[in-house]
Amino acid sequence: MRFPNQRLAQLFAMLQNETLPQDELAQRLSVSTRTVRADIAALNMLLTPHGAQFTLSRGNGYQLKIDDPARYQSLQTQQSPALARGPRTSQERIHYLLARFLTSAFSLKLEDLADEWFVSRATLQNDMADVREHLLRYHLTLETRPRHGMKLFGGEMAIRACLTDLLWTLAQQEPSHPLIVSTTLNTEVSQRLQSLLPDIFSHCQIRLTDEGELFLRLYCAVAVRRIREGYPLSECVAEEVDEKVRHAAHEIAELLQQLADKPLSEPEVSWLKVHIAARQVQEIAPSAINADDEEALVRYILNFINTQYNYNLLNDKQLHADLLTHIKTMITRVRYQIMIPNPLLENIKQHYPMAWDMTLAAISSWGKYTPYTISENEIGFLVLHIGVGLERSYNIGYQRQPQVLLVCDAGNAMVRMIEAVLARKYPQIEIARTLTLRDYEARDSIVEDFVISTARIGEKDKPVIMIAPFPTDYQLEQIGKLVLVDRTRPWMLDKYFDASHFRIVEGEIDQQTLFKTLCDQLHEEGFVDAAFLDSVIEREAIVSTLLGDGIALPHALGLLAKKTVVIRYSRHRGLPGVTKRRTLFFYSPSAKVNMKRRWPSTIFSSLSCANAP
């Protein structure tokens, strides 16, 4: 089905698998809510022949209602409209131009491309400035030959890196982008790599993020195409890698050799080792990493921040371990000029401005003593670690509340950043575990209270909230519905109240005996010291704490308790000398017959103590 404009296609994709209110849709599409309502009406007109409609559910938002599953399934199996058209926007034209120049063995004329994509030559000429700038980052150049057109020149490793980065960026935005599934890569090769590579990594015990695995899969597909076309690598590198990485690289090389139907050279295997080593997830324990350079850089950064900005993060073991695991692979990347995209760089600068300044200053100072050049993308990942460390060390109030399972398809830095965002917004959340998408799908059940995921996943008897790496207000509100509404009250009751602190007094008792009984219990449980009883008696002698209606609230003169707690004693006949009575209702969950029992009673003592803030 063709949509009249791109916004309708985006709106249809958003609402296919989740329910969203019009405010959230308007924010994502950068339009007004009135435009959203008009677009929904237009979509419903298009979907009516296919047995589906978007309906508004009050309090939830727009959701897809399928009246005829057979007709709707036929719509789903139709060819994507993106596959049948050329680039429309300037950004799309830049992507298509890059892909053409990177994969063409001959010179290309803008006139031919303009005719193919139904645009003017002047339009493509304007886009060429951005194309040249992008290629220059990889030390690639375009040379113009009279009557032949333009041809790309540069190293084979740079061409592969540029093409892989381009496809990886497009895959993050749209996994079924035509440049990935039909134009640039062989579909059969991509499918075989997708099914076989995870088994190789699992067999060799190599941990990768979902993004890292996707990048390696795209690189292997690009390598197969280039080898088939007669462009093997000739630059050999000598990188010391783990035995597991070496074993995985040789297994992948055998697979690529079968797919390309050509023998692989030693440089191909060497670069596979480098790419795997640069993207594998290291163990969190720093004792497993024996690299003096990485340890020295971590100490240098933390000492620089402590000296120049007076923020002491040297004792943060979690930050030290996270930086160590990240910097080890980062050094491998910068040593061989392997560029890794950072799509959240601008958001990182916006959300962590102070951490950005600190990290940038530390890296710039360290750069005087090293031949490596660290890009802004790499600095951005370091900023996430530093920013989270600052929040962890200089913000208090973390409370244990609901157990949450985090499913994140990004790296360790992104996980720490999401944890910091959740802790800042909902400090009572505790991240019990963090899993990749593949690990989550492999589990049969979930023991945590609910799941927060950065990718679309299915529910496993527990609610699932999908969020962006930098969650929107709507997404945080959805998390809040599970955190605050469902669990805040039981948590507060458990914190300040206990079943052993609720008693009914039988028989005769005077005020002094009651105070001594209560204070002795608090003293035995470690809430107060021996001086608390005298303070309560002194406070009661000054002015009675009887509040009326048979309720008294005795307490100490000062904040003498070690922890806030409430004890409630009640007596049916009241305390001698207190004649005012009141009828109260008591609800007991253990009383199965008479759930609402009427007791003529007087709550004559509710002793409470509060600790200092």
UniProtKB/TrEMBL annotation:
Example GO molecular function term? protein-N(PI)-phosphohistidine-sugar phosphotransferase activity
Claim: Transcription regulation is one of the keywords in the record:
yes
Describe the location of the PRD domain by residue ranges: 184-286, 289-396
| Keyword Repeat attached | yes
Its Gene Ontology biological processes?
Answer: phosphoenolpyruvate-dependent sugar phosphotransferase system
Q: Which residues form the PTS EIIA type-2 domain?
A: 495-613
Q: Which parts of the sequence belong to the PTS EIIB type-2 domain?
A: 402-491
Q: What is this protein called?
A: LicR protein
